[in-house]
């Protein structure tokens, strides 16, 4: 069945035309030449904006930036579902209380009036939006930002397809009913085509015709789908990148009916400048790795020191997204424009450098209650990594769990390491190789902005100072993810000193113990020991004699 499905996709000649969606930048624009162009904030003034995924990491930053830098925006309609026992209203009200919105709150304490939550479960038919809400949205929305997705790397294919592809199709259907829609901006990922080494700003032919895949998976039970997933995703590492590639194709299919922009960010990290340097609220991507290393839990990971670490700050992605929304609506490109939102080609930084700066930052600003002193190394060698996993992860976990057991507590360290190893194994694909992205459209977009907009919606990553960014990122994980207080840093340093002393004591005891075992069992070890000790004595007496002579 898997072969049939993938072959069906690959043999479909019409798919090959998808790549032809690329058009020269000079002939894509129509309309506004000659007249004074509205600035980005002026464009959003009086507009009704629809956002999916507004409760997520990037969605929240998008909502915040729109409210802060486009204060005349009319309303933000956000699609939200109830979750984890919380109603939609409760979730939105909690979100608005979050620290991220402090600056907006200062500027406009009533900012919440502009946020209009719409109940929606994207996995349901019709996105589970009520008919009244559909009517409201189709009557007033001017621009759509589609951020919602499952970003889990271990998501079962059916689920990932339902959310990342089918929900996108449904949203496109809704968008087509909108009477005043000016632009549809879809957030994809720079890794949608990670099966290629060079990635252009085009939509590549999808690995399979999405419609055929959807029809085929419909009748299969979860077990069959799980079995054929590796064959279907082929040389992509997970269902996430696979379904994001399919989603791009689905979006492109509507380019004749809608003005479309597709944003492809690489690895989205903490904010660079706005609203605060280092803002981050999750463990995804590198953040979890940094935290695990800062806590002294993670000591080794497979990554290529010399590979480019294509991190991109979340505020850069959002600034580019808003600018792309403006450009798409104002210039109405004839085909969907793709923006590779990456740093590697413009201001490259490597995993080896990240390792160095993360470690030194956590030594200066330690996390509270670290398990061990932060000291992580990356290596591209499988065997060396396995060795360090054994010595620096499993062995200490075993000892710590033994200590917990003896003191009547529940052992937990081995379980933590097993989860960490699972997470890391899913990330290593991305940290062990590099890709080259063309990001001409990012430069083109920048050239279209006024100098004022270039400052307000800054996505010029040439200005990014990596060591400073990484320092703020690490501090951000401490402040905003772990909710640790900066005033506790002296205590955290004291804790690290204690850990260092424990390590020295432990190492000394270990050497003495091993030596005692050897001495007790082997005549040769005893001879070596006496030889070394007598050599030391001779050296000491020579040293003493020569220093007495010189005095
Ligand atoms: C050696 C140190 C020096 C550093 C230098 C080297 C650094 C190398 C870093 C390499 C990073 C490479 C990153 C590549 C990313 C590619 C990006 C592609 C871009 C994208 O488009 S999408 C965004 C990326 N998506 C993700 O990152 C999602 C990955 N996560 C998952 O798929 C799942 O969460 C995972 C890892 C399978 C775990 O699943 P599960 O066991 O079911 O756990 P939960 O998700 O429910 O989470 C439970 C609990 O754990 C916390 N958590 C989640 N992830 C991590 C983590 N990586 N580290 C630590 N903790 C983590 C999570 O918040 C939950 O906490 P609760 O308190 O809520 O229970
Ligand atoms: N983070 C990264 O490194 C990168 C992300 N991207 C892309 O950016 C976009 C945003 O990612 P990010 O903010 O990090 O992801 P998050 O996981 O933080 O947010 C996902 C959002 O989607 C919503 N969502 C998920 N499932 C459903 C559902 N069934 N019904 C309604 N809403 C749902 C979530 O809502 P809820 O709160 O209810 O779960 C949440 O608001 C995605 O399209 C992703 O592919 C691209 C490159 C890198």
TrEMBL record:
Residues annotated as transmembrane: 504-522, 528-545
Keyword Repressor: no
Gene3D superfamilies per UniProt: NAD(P)-binding Rossmann-like Domain
EC numbers for this chain: 1.2.1.84
Pfam family, one: NAD_binding_4
Record GO biological process: lipid biosynthetic process; long-chain fatty-acyl-CoA metabolic process
Membrane topology term: Single-pass membrane protein
Domain Fatty acyl-CoA reductase C-terminal: 393-484
Keyword Lyase: no
InterPro entries assigned to the protein according to its UniProt record, in alphabetical order: FAR, FAR_C, FAR_NAD-bd, NAD(P)-bd_dom_sf
Localization in the cell: Peroxisome membrane
Record-level Gene Ontology MF annotations: alcohol-forming long-chain fatty acyl-CoA reductase activity; alcohol-forming very long-chain fatty acyl-CoA reductase activity
Keywords assigned: Lipid biosynthesis, Lipid metabolism, Membrane, NADP, Oxidoreductase, Peroxisome, Transmembrane, Transmembrane helix
CDD domains: FAR-N_SDR_e (cd05236), FAR_C (cd09071)
Every Thioester reductase (TE) domain range: 51-320
GO cellular component, one term: peroxisomal membrane
Reaction catalysed by this enzyme: 16-methylheptadecanoyl-CoA + 2 NADPH + 2 H(+) = 16-methylheptadecan-1-ol + 2 NADP(+) + CoA; eicosanoyl-CoA + 2 NADPH + 2 H(+) = eicosan-1-ol + 2 NADP(+) + CoA; octadecanoyl-CoA + 2 NADPH + 2 H(+) = octadecan-1-ol + 2 NADP(+) + CoA; (9Z,12Z)-octadecadienoyl-CoA + 2 NADPH + 2 H(+) = (9Z,12Z)-octadecadien-1-ol + 2 NADP(+) + CoA
Function: Catalyzes the reduction of saturated and unsaturated C16 or C18 fatty acyl-CoA to fatty alcohols. It plays an essential role in the production of ether lipids/plasmalogens which synthesis requires fatty alcohols. In parallel, it is also required for wax monoesters production since fatty alcohols also constitute a substrate for their synthesis.
Family the entry assigns: Belongs to the fatty acyl-CoA reductase family.
Name of this chain's protein: Fatty acyl-CoA reductase
Originating species: Acanthochromis polyacanthus (spiny chromis)
